[in-house]
Design a protein that fits this description.
Pfam families: dsrm, Ribonucleas_3_3
CATH topology of the largest domain: Ribonuclease iii, N-terminal Endonuclease Domain, Chain A
Largest sheet: 3 strands, antiparallel
Order of helices and strands: HHHEEHHHHHHHEEEHHH
Keywords: Cytoplasm, Endonuclease, Hydrolase, Magnesium, Metal-binding, mRNA processing, Nuclease, RNA-binding, rRNA processing, rRNA-binding, tRNA processing
Mean pLDDT: 82
EC number: 3.1.26.3
CATH class of the largest domain: Mainly Alpha
Catalytic activity: Endonucleolytic cleavage to 5'-phosphomonoester
Low-confidence stretches: 273-301
Subcellular location: Cytoplasm
């Protein structure tokens, strides 16, 4: 009882001060432990040392918030799309929690004005605002509990800034994005059919490889050539976005072929790999089943 009274007195004293007032406008409630929220907006480039020698920033809160966000969005999507199958639900959740969406929502919430980061660090073409939003979710979870955190995600993030029906229909053309990226960087790219075969039900399945300047960077399968190309492009984009060693290899290859350097943010400008084509999970499953019971049919030239 004394603790609640103390918190109430402290709140009355600070509710019109920053960051309490700004957080109230965003959250719809006043924080109990303000230090959690201050840490949520502290980018690692501006880490501070605690009294016990630990360096504090928002990375641990981001880790926690990411897990809570995934769970809550999964529940919301499951309840909203009651007649949809698992693959659709997975894809829709991925589109909501992907970094592109989180960055946009974070800016619309005004978090870009609250994140503390080094002046040497550019705020453009990176994910600090989306990361801060996930850290904020982690702070809410620790400060207020799961129910309040769930309500914030559902009633603020989703209802105000995410149209579930629209985002569920959103598709990313990975092939076009990859071709555009390769042309911009003056690197040759090709999509080649590796093989075609049939699954256990007699459905045709296609396997396609994507090659960038004579180096294979992705392989995909699908129930159509188009789907297999999209899958291959998606794998290639994931590798280009996340594999630092491969990024260095491509940068050196570009330098050798064109004499041009690769911009630091060049790989980040590729679309998020989290968004998936509907049907790809089915194709992956059937491919695994088919590998043990079918004979490959030579690809048509």
């Amino acid at each position: 009882m004394f603790t609640k009274l103390y918190k109430r007195i402290r709140l009355l004293k600070n509710m019109n001060k920053e960051p309490y007032s700004s957080l109230y406008k965003i959250l719809g409630f006043y924080p109990d432990n303000i230090h959690l929220y201050e840490q949520a907006f502290l980018h690692k480039s501006s880490s501070v040392e605690s009294g016990d020698g630990r360096w504090l920033n928002n990375e641990r809160l981001e880790f926690l918030g990411d897990a809570v966000l995934d769970a809550v969005v999964a529940d919301i999507v499951y309840k909203h799309f009651q007649n949809k199958r698992e693959g659709f639900l997975t894809n829709t959740r991925s589109k909501i929690v992907q970094r592109e969406t989180m960055n946009r929502v974070a800016v619309e919430l005004g978090l870009d004005k609250m994140v503390v980061y080094s002046a040497k660090l550019s705020s453009h073409n990176n994910h600090m605002y989306g990361n801060a939003l996930e850290a904020l979710i982690g702070a809410i979870y620790l400060d207020q509990g799961y129910e309040v955190c769930y309500n914030f995600i559902q009633n603020v993030l989703i209802k105000k800034y995410v149209n579930l029906e629209t985002i569920a229909r959103k598709e990313v053309n990975f092939k076009s994005s990859l071709i555009e990226w390769s042309q911009k960087n003056k690197l040759e790219i090709s999509f080649d059919l590796i093989e075609s075969f049939t699954d256990n039900d007699g459905n045709p399945v296609f396997q396609t490889g994507v090659t960038l300047s004579d180096t294979q960077i992705g392989v995909g399968i699908g129930y159509s050539k188009k789907e297999s190309q999209q899958s291959a492009a998606k794998m290639a984009i994931k590798k280009l976005r996340t594999d630092k060693t491969f990024q260095q290899f491509i940068s050196e290859l570009k330098k050798k072929k064109t004499g041009e350097n690769t911009a630091e943010n060049e790989f980040e400008n590729l679309p998020e790999e989290a968004v998936e084509n509907s049907g790809q999970e089915i194709a992956d499953t059937e491919k695994r089943k088919a590998e043990t019971s079918i004979e490959a049919v030579p690809a048509e030239n």
